[in-house]
Amino acid sequence: MNETEVTDKVDTLMDIKKVTLRFGGVKALSDVSFNIKESEIRAIIGPNGAGKSSMLNVINGFYTPQEGEIWFQGKRRPKLKPHQIAYQRIARTFQNIALFEGMTVLDNMMTGRMIYMKSGLLPQLLWWGKAEREETENRMIVERIIDFLEIQHIRKTPVGMLPYGLQKRVELGRALAAEPKLLLLDEPMAGMNNEEKEDMCRFILDVNEELGTSIALIEHDMGVVMDLADRVVVIDHGEKIADGLPDQVRNDQNVIDAYLGVAH
Amino acid sequence: MTSEQLNLTIPDLLDRNVQKYGQKIANREKEFGIWQSWTWQDVKEGVEEIALGYLSLGIQEGDHIAVLGRNRPRLYWSMVAAQWIGAVPVPIYQDAVGDEIGYVLGHCEAVLAVAGDQEQVDKILEQQEKCKALQQIVYLDPRGLRKYDHSRLHSFASIHDNLAENKDRFGEELIRRRKALSPEKICVMLYTSGTTGNPKGVVLSHDNIIAASKASSDFDSLSQKETVLAYLPMAWVGDFIFSIGQAYWSGFCVNCPESSQTMMHDLREIGPSYFFAPPRVFESLLTTCMIRIEDAGRTKRSMFQYFMQHARKVGVPIMTGEKVSLMDLIIYRAGEFFVYGPLRNVLGLSRVRVGYTAGEAIGPEIFDFYRSIGVNLKQLYGQTEASVFITIQPDGEVEADSVGIACPGVEIKIDDRGEIFYRSPGTFIEYYKNPESTNSTKDKDGWVATGDAGFIDESNGHLKIIDRAKDVGKMANGKLFAPKYVENKLKFFPDILETVVFGNGRDYCTAVINIDLISVGNWAERHNVVYSSYQELAGHPEVYDIIHGYIQQVNEDLAKDENLSGCRVKRFLILHKELDADDGELTRTRKVRRRVVEDKYNDLVTALYDGSKEVATTTEVTYEDGRKGFISATLRICEV
Amino acid sequence: MQTLLFALEVSLNGFMTGILYSLVALGFVLIFKASGVFNYAQGVMVLFAALTLVGLQQGIVPFEHLINNLFGTSIHGFGWNMPTLLALLLTLLTMLLLAWLVEKLILKHLVNQNPVILFMATIGLAYFLEGFGDLMWGADVKKLDIGVPMGISDTVESTTYDWFGYGFFIDRLDITASIVAALLVIGLTIFSQYSKTGRALRAVADDHQAALSVGISLRQIWVIVWSIAGLVALIAGIFWGSKSGVQFSLSLVALKALPVLMLGGLTSIPGAIVGGLLIGVGEKLFDFLVGPMIGGATENWFAYVVALVFLLFRPQGLFGEKIIERV
Amino acid sequence: MFYREVGEFKTSYPQDSESFAIGLDKYGYYFILIIAFGIIPFLVNDYWANAVFVPFLVWAVASLGLNILTGHCGQISLGTGGFMAVGAYSCYKLMTSFPDLNIIFCIIISGVITAAVGILFGIPSLRIKGFYLAVATLASQFFLVWLFNRVPWFYNYSASGQISTPERSVFGVLVTGPNVQPWAQYLICLLFAFGLAWGARNLTRGSLGRSWMATRDMDIAAEIIGVNLLKAKLSAFAISSFYIGIAGALFFSVYLGAVEATEAFGINQSFLVLFMIIIGGLGSILGSFIGAAFMVLFPVLLKNILVGWWQWDAAIATHLEFISVGILIIVFLIFEPHGLAQLWRLLKQKLRLWPYPH
């Protein structure tokens, strides 16, 4: 961390300042700014291709914006590799599930603990001392998450064999395993039936309440967004067009136009 | 040796076990993927911790403490803890609906409720106005309870945290209470889901429980080495006897499954050596087994059939130690390797040394199936009022249609009306706050009326049960009418889940049938019969034909026995909905509430007798979430 | 001055080998573009084609060793030589048949499998073909001569001598080879750019779904590209065969097309051509200039190492398009 | 059918993550160990040692190595032969330059050296993927072999260009050189194979192994979770090369005794090992052994039948071997990409559920 200047807002977990992202000529995001408060649920909505996913990719460092700053926990974040950002305890799920097909549910979630695994090569080779201890300690934490998400019965099943809904749940579990400060959910309920959606909502709320995790989620189902989100930011054509409480946003003229596709 | 000389209480046994088996495992629970274990030492500490917690909540001697939740070690401990401080534990069926719980809490004036999780807590809170006495709730699983008002809610965690403080504040009190404890004091109060009216609270003393436990443990020489799986409702006397009475007497280990869904899997992992299950469990186990075998390849299936046939022939004799031809023995051993052994393995019964079934009659072929593959399954006859044990089958004297000989220490007599009476050290003290029914069931000499009709088989002195005494009626033609007897015979067919037979004071018998959705549904699949709902399947003509066939078979059986020949079923219909405890049609132990059914469906009953070919009806149903709705249907009535 | 000319001569030779590389590389590219299969067997196909040609031409009885061993007979050839043209024709047919079989027996069962799996499958195919070719025609080194002019071209030598006072040694074979190859390269390029099928191929390459939607059968395409690859292999086989005899090492030489691809970019036809020439000239020059200092025979690895180092800086190759990763 | 799992329950996580969680499997494993260590050494003769057991063990080590890289970390390599050569030649140089150094250490250090080389050639894997990488690894294959072939220092300027092992012994027992006892050869290879397999199992079930598999299954997600792809891939290359290097060292010093780079470590060896793990099972320790056993036994069998009994030319046997191997590979890739190990797993599943079908 080269800069250690502190932002004005204390309860702000992440502050995105005037972020612009280009792919060659194309502008995916043009100076978008908003913030995420400690232990709030922040929804990012907008029409397809508005740049929502790009926003998440910027937040967890998969894309590096050409302009703009990202402040995390009161510190300006330098350019980091995604795996370094993971160590800042920002975890995410993906729009189209990105689980490790070849591994069991348990191993997937244990992989989510990667940032806490520190044992060296030799102990691992001999499966002795720190390696085994570490394995057990992390297993305990993972098992609690398994219990929390009610997926005990599939613990040792290869994820490839699971139905879509459960896979989504496992992916959430993998993200939770990192005990994130900030959890990014990219359309956590896409393609789920209502029952599954209700479950997922419950889990998201529980995570937010029980663990006080801040959550930024992209979701198309307006109903869900209105129920879950504390605050909503609306992105369209890579620009922020509204930001505020769900009700305000819902009645915002720009937003309505954007969704109805009125020309700008 | 009788219980008076034993002169022990459950807490005494706990102390004794800590002395005898301190470091041996007393409880296990599958949690977080592994079997968490507690030694007797740990259990004692856990119990004391909870007891202190109770004291800190101001629980007085004689107070009632309700316990609701699935089988979990801490909930068992919380019952023993209650006894420890002279309070009375009152386990309640976890799947009971609101008002049932409300009634019990109100009736026993529980001051404290111990709840397993949020679901149970909610149910209790809903019923608050019905149970004014209730002051506190202690819960085990904090999930989702974070935002509740904690002025009257306490978590086990908080009790644990205050342990040190509670110790120095209530340490002496704890010891005083423990001293004040004595064998004739109340050990537990269990509400019997009476087949009629409100449940009655059966009060059992430490003497009762321990005497019964000792007698039965000796009978099967249960040792500290046994393992059992505690999966039956904690509110049921059986579970209390097995998981506390016998477990504490013999000092064996009680294991709790991870959840109800994983029960079968956990059963396999633990592999109990001493196993109890009501007939319906063995039934569904067998059904699922047969269904899974159905999708096996032909060769494997035929091999299975062959060996099972052989088992039916010689399995039971071999089990009871009779001589069979060498060839048969060899084939059986082969079967043991190819089928029986693996089958016991997949069923999780490989290690069962003693297995019991009770509560209602079990189908002979089901019973024999398990015995023939080498599971030592036996029957016993008992009830809450007797701390379970009345009669029991000794090894080697096992039959499907009897319930064995009188348990050690139990006397039995049968009156002229055929009703069975017993007297034993396990006999209950009283029905709580209900002297008149206490007196009506238990006379001054301590003889208790079972309400069951039966007779003793002179040949071997085994007791045979016909039916509930009050249900044994007379037909118009004066012949004996034993509906339960007929119903059981019908229910032995896997396709029939439940059935109610009518005919008291009538000219002939009729039956209302409930098909088994799993079994019949599977049949439908294999004969590609399409159906969208239970109702549609139940109404299907082919299904009617199948049931028709079963009833004919039963009628033939009945015809053989002179004084039961009147009970042959002449007309029947298949009900459009499953009888359901939530609609009050079944008890929580899934016994039919005959009267309720008769009133609720009297339109059907009349139709059954007025000779009409079909009948239209609408019924109220209750869904899981408690909402009510109506379903209506036109039911065909079938002549036999 | 002398060395410079010498170097020039060397690079000229290299240039010609390079054209052959491009030729084989082209086979790869076509298959890869159209079916996403990275055909490791291309090299062995060259060998196989050459073997078959020789075998037919010299009238070897297919599987004669096997037959002899099976029935104790002692057959050694039909005793006549097949006219070269006929032999060529039959070989071509064989290659087409091979293409068809490959589609039928392998590709069909591996549709939308992980490309790496397909790659490994082609390695299996390579093994099979190698064994099969040897079993069919015998493993001994064969001399291939179908009347392509050979030997040092005097005209070139004399003319160059007149110009620079130094005569270039250039094999006539090489000259013919490069001319034919060049023609073929041009032909294929035109074919894939302008003919309907060619456009279809590219359509498939760009987007399978789209291709299917415009009513192009993927399987036809595959058969076609594999046939073309077969043709290319045959031509390459002819020239290399005549140059250095028909033997296993042929397949290794042909393998050089792999680094060529890496260099040019898997999906680019011009890439294949340029890459081929670069490698051809490069390895000859390198061996000429640096070789002696480090023990020579650097052709074995030069191409690969160049490709490897190059990829470090430009993973998509010279002409390959940049890969943008998404989540 | 044979499984009786009732009453086998786990009360701790170490128990739960045991390699052989099921009782029967554990006993089977012990049984095999007893046979391998306690019985075979006394029976093995020169033919069996040199035709079957020693090559099997050496190749098993090699495929363990490649399986870590390809099966677990998902990076194909066609440079196995080259890396084996590195192992062999380092071992040779060590043995000749430090005559007093115990052969065991020579072999292990050869592994370490190979690991270093592996890292060097692994660097491209950070930029390039899939078969781009496969071809890149061909570079190592050709370059390394050429190196050992052309730079006399490596073969101590011997006229033949061959290297041949001097006699070395462990605890006074001769393990290399022409006069070595078959059982000694066998035992030393067995020790290495067993130790390395055990190590491989530990690595692949730990966090490092998971980082490899994550890289294999979905590298992007892996990186976002916090897997350092650079570390994951290079460590895979290093460890894989370590194994392969040791295999090379054993191959040269214990098995063959004298080798010449081009034919002993040619590209065909690279493919041989690749085939072993495809047929045996990608990402499976057991698979590495099964595959090695198969690819070693199959030719031996073929030769014995065709040449031994039917008196055919050896050449034809070789051709048939090529053909059938090629076919096998394709068949396996089409029908069971996870190889024999997977078939074994399925069979086991059936036996466990017996008499139920599934």
Descriptive keywords:
heterotetramer; A: alpha/beta; Rossmann fold; 6-stranded mixed beta sheet; 4-stranded antiparallel beta sheet; 10 strands; globular; B: 640 residues; 5-stranded mixed beta sheet; 22 helices
Written account of the structure:
The complex is a heterotetramer of chains A (264), B (640), C (327) and D (358). Chain A has 10 helices and 10 strands. Chain A is α/β, with parallel strands linked by helices. Chain A has a domain of 123 residues: P-loop containing nucleotide triphosphate hydrolases (Rossmann fold), CATH 3.40.50. In chain A, helix 3 runs parallel beside helix 6. With 640 residues, chain B is an alpha/beta fold. A 5-stranded parallel β-sheet of chain B has the order 4-3-5-6-7, sandwiched between helices. Chain B has a 5-stranded mixed β-sheet with strand order 12-13-14-15-16. The relative contact order of chain B is 0.08. Chain D has 358 residues and is an all-alpha fold. In chain D, the strands form 2 sheets. A two-stranded antiparallel ribbon of chain D has the order 1-4. In chain D, strands 2-3 form a two-stranded antiparallel sheet. Chain D is globular and about 65 Å long. Chain D starts with 12 loop residues before the first helix and ends in a 5-residue tail after the last helix. The interface between C and D is large, with 51 and 50 residues.
Describe the secondary-structure layout.
The complex is a heterotetramer of chains A (264), B (640), C (327) and D (358).
Chain A: E1 12-23, E2 26-37, E3 41-45, H1 52-59, E4 67-72, E5 75-76, H2 82-87, E6 90-92, H3 105-112, H4 121-126, H5 130-148, H6 164-177, E7 182-186, H7 194-211, E8 214-218, H8 222-228, E9 231-236, E10 239-244, H9 246-251, H10 253-260
Parallel strand pairs in A: 3-8, 3-9, 6-7, 7-8
Antiparallel strand pairs in A: 1-2, 1-4, 4-5, 9-10
Chain C: H1 2-35, H2 42-57, H3 64-71, H4 84-106, H5 115-137, H6 154-164, H7 172-194, H8 196-206, H9 208-213, H10 218-244, H11 249-255, H12 257-264, H13 269-289, H14 291-294, H15 299-313
Chain D: H1 13-16, H2 23-43, H3 46-72, H4 80-97, H5 103-122, H6 130-150, E1 163-164, E2 169-170, E3 173-174, H7 182-205, H8 207-225, H9 229-256, E4 258-259, H10 261-264, H11 267-280, H12 285-309, H13 314-335, H14 339-353
Antiparallel strand pairs in D: 1-4, 2-3
Helix pairs in contact in D: 2-7, 3-7, 3-8, 3-9, 3-11, 3-12, 4-5, 4-6, 4-9, 5-9, 7-8, 7-9, 8-9, 11-12, 12-13, 12-14
